[in-house]
Amino acid sequence: MLGPVILAASRSDRMRRLVSAAPVTRPVVDRFIPGETVDEIVPIIRDLTGQGLELTMDVVGEDITTPAQAQVARDAYLELIDRLEPLDLGSRAEMSVKLSMFGQALDGGHELALKNVRPVVEAAAEIGTTVTLDAEDHTTLDSMFAIHEELRKDFPQTGCVIQAYLFRTEADARRLADGGSRVRLVKGAYKEPAEVAYQRRHEIDKAYVRILRTLMEGEGYPMIGSHDPRLISIAQELARTAGRKLDEYEFQMLYGIRGDEHLRLAAEGHRMRVYTAYGTDWYGYFMRRLAEKPANLRFFARSMVSKG
After folding, report:
1. 65: which DSSP letter?
2. Per-residue pLDDT for 256 more than 70?
3. Which of the following is catalytic: 58, 134, 172, 205?
């Protein structure tokens, strides 16, 4: 089971230095993170939306240790929104934010994160789009859901993410579905203890389907975050059974993974949103992509061998 090992490495400063310094790393990182600056990412946005795809944009970065750094993260999203405005994409390009970047883990972090994320949500609404709050490890979720609920009072389109591998998620899904929320469902990409999360893949998949059924039958807007062909097929069947039209749910996949499937789903009339990350602090994001799927790790290993 390499996934937990890689997730542990994602928090190691020594591994960060080793991986970042490896000559083969940058070309592989580019597969998942197509740019470091807004100037580099705007052409990617134009290209993907020109192919009929939608996007959710993530400015990567996780090691926030001061309020000043949290403000820098906020300002990076505000800069992105400024650059999105003339593109006139509306909700075709939304934002995904991790509240840890906005200071959630600092002293007084709940209030600080809410203070920093609110102007991003306001600015997004002004250009006709919205923000989704990413889920992080289980210790952060009560704060995230409380901020989500507060933001939805003024900006009801604000979305959030739930993770199928957590035991609590079925109850969270029922509450969010009843409340009419936008909800992205993912399997989960953090190392969680057996006391709070399923550990076996088949248990996580079964939970995913149960939770997705709840979302499809509810009043909200489901966002299916998965690259798994079986789960995608099940999602389509659950949507048909629930009587949902094609614009009443969407699929979401990561940039750099199953690009042909992105285009296939879009061509069939589905809303297909590509989770597109950019920025200089890419290490944690990159390592979780490797941990999520053995094929990603094999891709990296092959690159190291071929370039060595």
Report:
1. -
2. yes
3. 134
